[in-house]
Amino acid sequence: MTMVAAGALLGLLLGLGLVIIVYRSPRARRIQLADRIDPYLRDTPRPSRLLADRPRSSNRPGFVAIEALLRPLLSDVAGRLDRFLGGRVGLQRRLTQAGGRTGIEEFRAQQVVCAACGALFGAFLLGLRATVGIGPPALVSVALVVAGAAGGVVGRDYWLTRTIADREDRMLLEFPTIAELLALAVTAGESAIGALERVGRLTHGELGRELRLALADARAGATLVQALEGIAARTALAPLTRFVDGMAVAIERGTPLADILRAQAVDAREAGKRQLLEAGGRKEIAMMIPVVFLVLPTTVIFAFYPALVSFTVIAQ
């Protein structure tokens, strides 16, 4: 490592530290509107932070200290990323479809962490180039840093899409069984709410969780029809939407609910069979690729190679 490279690295670190100090100083810090009006809205003084509960991971003080130091910076960067990308309404709908266990701020923070992990590879190559003098050119390393950061953000978004698809597949698998259980409960004399409570208590999948959320909405003051429509709003599955609409119409008009549930269960079974046949057809086409490009050429080579060798020997 040359003296010029060492001096440049130290100067870069010193300049970065000075920029962070100036940027996070009280004079340069941007005061939010909530901070301005918060003292006038509180009717009691703010309690001391010394009385707050200790974190659960108190047996690892090093990790707690690192988390406490990085949390404000991570929240700030996540907020800036959210303002840059936008689309909070669509993202909130996708997070709800994924189960609603992650908020927008937490998801943006995870994207920031993934972007930082993706940029570490390019940063490592850049540092290796600056210190030892080996590795790709500096411009390529900087491009790798930017590409790694963008890839981390896009990769976390793709993982959310895969999570939604997997959850919807599990709900489609659970749907016929839950529909039949609801039909049996209603046929046995249970009311609609009683059948939902019984099935929601007995099942533990994603669709059972949605039924429990609908019951919680009904207990909170919403009508049963509104609570069932909330299930359709939180998912993007056409069979489940038709099932909820059928239940809502039956409850509003007083038509026999057991027949509708039984018919919905039969339709769900038929839809599952069609999906299996379609998946089998796609797999059959995919299986032709190794047969055509691997097995068939190998068979042709084994069949014609001895004759080719014989012709070559005879020609000599």
Reconstruct the topology from this structure.
Blueprint: H1 3-23, H2 33-41, H3 61-85, H4 88-97, H5 104-131, H6 138-187, H7 192-202, H8 206-219, H9 224-234, H10 238-253, H11 257-315
Helix pairs in contact: 3-5, 5-6, 6-7, 6-11, 7-8, 8-9, 9-10, 10-11
Brief summary:
With 316 residues, this protein is an all-alpha fold. It has eleven helices and no strands.
Query: In DSSP terms, counting alpha (H) and pi (I) runs of 4 or more, how many helices?
Result: 11
Give the C-alpha Rg.
Answer: 30 Å
Mean pLDDT: 79
Task: Encode the helix/strand succession as letters.
Answer: HHHHHHHHHHH
Number of strands: 0
Give your account of this protein's structure.
This is Type II secretion system F family protein. Its main location: membrane. The chain is mostly helical. It has helices spanning 3-23, 33-41, 61-85, 88-97, 104-131, 138-187, 192-202, 206-219, 224-234, 238-253, 257-315. Helix 3 (61-85) packs across helix 5 (104-131), helix 6 packs across helix 11 and helix 7 crosses helix 8. The chain is flat and about 85 Å long. Residues 53-59 have low confidence and may be disordered.
